[in-house]
Design a protein that fits this description.
- The protein is of the alpha/beta class and 478 residues long.
- The protein has 3 domains: 2-155 and 280-348, FAD/NAD(P)-binding domain (3-Layer(bba) Sandwich); 168-277, FAD/NAD(P)-binding domain; 353-465, FAD/NAD-linked reductase, C-terminal dimerisation domain (Enolase-like, domain 1), CATH 3.30.390.
- Helices cover 29% and strands 25% of the residues.
- The protein has helices at 16-25, 47-52, 54-72, 88-113, 191-202, 222-234, 327-341, 370-375, 391-395, 424-436, 441-446, 456-465, and strands spanning 2-10, 30-34, 116-119, 121-124, 129-133, 139-149, 153-155, 168-169, 183-187, 206-210, 238-240, 244-251, 254-261, 264-270, 272-275, 279-281, 314-316, 355-357, 362-367, 380-386, 402-408, 414-421.
- Strands 1, 2, 3, 4, 5, 6 and 17 form a 7-stranded mixed beta sheet that branches.
- A hairpin with a 2-residue loop joins strand 12 and strand 13.
- The chain is globular, with a radius of gyration of 24 Å.
- The chain starts with a strand and ends in a 13-residue tail after the last helix.
Length: 478
């Protein structure tokens, strides 16, 4: 027997489950296929982000920051906290409970919206048929008017450091340590490497980050990246740039890594090694040879601006297609596709997808950075405001970092907002909202921001674009 649906979604991560719910809300008979199983061998919804990515890492980041503050940040407030200790298994258990609550929440949303969950591995066949293979080997055929592929991504493996999930781990394994490693190595100074390195550094690990690129955070604005490198180094992360891993050897529950940098051949020994060099799209056994969906030269499913593949009625969203591998990008693509299937003319603004690194201070941006705009020959005006001049940041004892606003010199239109500091992600989102409506720096400067707030730093940076900041000295125009 073949099951029939208006929409079938392969994958229940941030792109897939959101697309399925939206499609169902739009009156389409919808099914969502998911194979991922938790430790109890039960299908868990939410994809990488919820199960082993965004959510659990933020839980550990928050727990580790509270521990760090109790150890080193309370005294300035007149609070004495003696003999502060960390129970790592309890911290990990809290993280696991948060994940469980949220995965269960998605199952409840499926039920409330009438989405049919099909458990198993989904494979697209010709003619918009999907083969679902259950964990017991049973096979079900599903016929769909429309198929949305949201199969996600997985960590990239590198030959010099094969993951064993004991001594050498990927980002998933790094969320499960039951004790603090004395010496921790991290391969990759990207978002994942910096966040996970920060967690364990705060808890007492001696952390060394080995990064092949010579430039730190090349996707970020150079001013923000420079400030981030200085701050994270001060926090105890030893970041080795231009260091290329060549080999690793595990002996007696330790790993010795070999790498080359400007000083030549180097070796270091760690108790644990996290491999965080990026992620790649999951397309294994996903597409039948005759389904006619094509991959690009990098192994991503080829789609147009509206996430349509080369086959009419078949779409792909999230990490398996071009663009940044971000949960919020995947979710909005899922919404767009569901609405287009339902006949609406939905589209996405790919120019305003915020990026965030949840270290402390947070690092976030939206729009273009200064080096990109200069490379394009765009004349710009720049305004910055340090949190050291923010009364709210002073009150919170969290004054590191700054806000940077970049505007077109001719039109004053805001082209980028870049922040390192407290609540950076929230401030950048304010910038994204304003930029979506074509704001000018003058517009932001004329708005009333409540006092005292961290948001005032965005207000002042916008004013500074045109030399009108109130609470810092303005740069004299040449």
């Amino acid at each position: 027997m073949t099951l029939k649906f208006d929409v079938v979604v392969i994958g229940a991560g941030p792109g897939g489950y959101v697309a399925a719910i939206k499609a169902a809300q739009l009156g389409l008979k919808t099914a969502c296929i998911e194979k991922y199983q938790d430790k109890d061998n039960k299908v868990a919804l939410g994809g990488t982000c919820l199960n082993v990515g965004c959510i659990p890492s933020k839980a550990l980041l928050d727990s580790s920051w509270k521990y760090h503050e109790a150890q080193e940040g309370f005294a300035v407030h007149g609070i004495t906290a003696k003999s502060v200790s960390i129970d790592v298994p309890a911290m990990i258990a809290r993280k696991a409970q948060i994940v469980k609550n949220l995965t269960g929440g998605i199952a409840g949303l499926f039920k409330a919206n009438g989405v049919t969950l099909l458990e198993g591995h989904g494979k697209l066949l010709a003619g918009k048929q999907v083969e679902v293979t259950g964990s017991d080997g049973s096979v079900t055929l599903v016929q769909a008017e429309n198929v949305i592929i949201a199969s996600g991504s997985k960590p990239i493996d590198i030959p010099p450091a094969p993951v064993d999930q004991e001594v050498i781990v990927d980002s998933t394994g790094a969320l499960e340590f039951q004790s603090v490693p004395k010496k921790l190595g991290v391969i990759g100074a990207g978002v994942i490497g910096l966040e996970l390195g920060s967690v364990w550094a705060r808890l007492g690990a001696e952390v060394t980050v080995i990064e092949a690129q010579d430039k730190f955070l090349p996707a970020a604005d150079e001013l923000i990246a420079k400030e981030a490198l200085k701050t994270l180094t001060k926090q105890g992360l030893s970041i080795r740039l231009g260091a290329r891993l060549t080999a690793s050897e595990v002996k007696k529950k330790q790993v010795t890594v070999s790498f080359t940098d400007a000083e030549g051949e180097q070796q270091m020994t760690f108790d644990k090694l996290i491999v965080a060099v990026g992620r790649r799209p999951v397309t294994t056994d996903l597409l039948a040879a005759d389904c006619e969906v094509t991959l690009d030269e990098r192994g991503y499913i080829y789609v147009d601006d509206y996430c349509a593949t080369s086959v009419p009625g078949v779409y792909a969203v999230g990490d398996v297609v071009r663009g940044p591998m971000l949960a919020h990008k995947a979710s909005e693509e899922g919404i767009m596709v569901a609405e287009r299937i339902a006949g609406h003319k939905a589209q996405m603004n790919y120019d305003l997808i915020p990026g965030v690194i949840y270290t402390h201070p947070e690092i976030a941006w939206v729009g273009k950075n200064e080096q990109q705009l200069k490379a394009e020959g765009v004349e710009i005006n720049v305004g910055t405001f340090p949190f050291a001049a923010s009364g709210r940041a002073m009150a919170a004892n969290d004054t590191g970092g700054l806000v940077k606003v970049i505007a077109d010199a001719k039109t004053d239109r805001v082209l980028g907002v870049h922040v390192i500091g407290p609540s950076a992600a929230e401030l950048v989102q304010q910038g994204a909202i304003a930029m979506e409506f074509g704001t000018s720096a003058e517009d932001l400067g004329m708005m009333v921001f409540s006092h005292p707030t961290l948001s005032e730093a965005l207000h002042e940076a916008a004013l500074a674009v045109n030399g009108q900041a109130i609470h810092i000295a303005n740069r004299k125009k040449r």
